[in-house]
Amino acid sequence: MEKPCIDPENGTEQSHRHTTSCEEIQTLEMARIIIDNSPVVLFRRIAGEDPKLTYVSENIRNYGYSARELLDGKVMFKDMVHLDDTDRVGDEIKAFTEKNIENYNMWYRILTKSGDVRWLEDRTSVIRDENGEATFHQGVLVDITERKEIELALSKSEEKYRRIVSTTAEGFILMDKDMKIIDANNAFCSLLGYQKNEIIGKTTIELSSREFSRFLKNNKKLLLKKETRALDGQFMAQNGTMVPVLIHSSPLTDDDDHFIGTMAFVSDMTEHKKALALAGEVQKSLLPQSQPEINGFDIAGKSKSCDEIGGDYYDFILQGKTSGQVNVVIGDIAGHGVDAALFMTTARGFLRMRATQPGNGAQIITDMNRHLSQDVLESGRFMTLFFITLDPESEHLSWVRAGHDPALIYDPNTDSFETLMGKGAALGVDGMLAYSDHKYEDFTKGKIIVLGTDGIWEALNPEGNLFGKERLREVIRENASKNSKDIVESVFQKIDSFSAGQKMSDDVTLVIIKRV
User: Looking at residues 331-339, what average pLDDT do you find?
Assistant: First the structure.
């Protein structure tokens, strides 16, 4: 016995012609229900000059109209199209028809019966008869209002962003994943004296100074990692002038979090660097300008700041007018920059003044600590120091250690290193501390004392590895036969080669004392 057909919407039994199967009716009815509850409207219209609708799904009611109104011609679909889009839509349909395009998409606005504006995506296909003549245009209308509103909001936001970027006084560049510039604002072009079309397509490496270009090449992989960065550099203007800059860069990724490029804001640091350079020249003038000439000793030193001015310090101070002894000192202020440089200047002034008065190294450093502690009590600043007293008439030396890394002594005859240890906290931490003298009684000919700051062994290469104290020992060992100045230069050259252009993160200072 044949089962009755059941309406899937209301569960009632349906009658049907014997030529149509129950399954077909149920399938068609189910399709009608799905379409009726879908946001996608189906339509078919006659092809030609009179595009009358022959079918439109019932869910056109979502826009306030009934299917019957449109099929009976009481409402024309073209009248639903927004007035600002009407001519464009008509022209596009005409162009598609003339070119015999079988499938096309259009995007336009319509007005609902209540006057609301809705965006539609119109996906139309052409139906032809056996002679190839177009008989119908049919397709679907998809409501894309929400998507369009988001796109318009993003477009407005992007336009606002572009106006801000293009008019800001700070330089801006957009780079692809190979660091090639694909966009630049007027400020960046003016900074380097180029037209925009001369900038586009160049890489930042091409625009950089020799030193900065080397840094970018050697650290390209590191710089292209998905991290926000700030770095100092130098670009070359079109007229050959070097322009110091501060670059703040951020990575750009796609929806799948794949790296696609970098955006960077570029600040002109010319005036700032001029002021710092002047301060740096003043600071450098406070460091020894020549090697001391002391019988029995070959002494040299060098200091290089990671910024224009720094917090490292070294000095050669004659103790009294008649003793013949010389004090060699190296120090490191916590931090670097202007405030560290000012602290260093204060410390230098007091140490030089106190060292000319009676007293051994321990007394000198104890008094210096008491004075500095009063000055930096509220700032939290402190200073490490290593103070050595040499006597040309003796193989003995004494030292005071105030929180600084121990000095090294290298003996080329035994190819061995010793360390000059000793207790003593950093200066400025506790004004009541008393420091002690320590003795070394075998500073014989050929031996070398190495005094350095932590910027040496903490120097980094592009892979993030430390230079380390073992490399320092190796350089000393390989160059022990040279004079002290050449040993100093060898160490700095080795650090520069190791770091491969990586910007120094701390000041680097080295003093070599060689017994001759």
Answer: 81
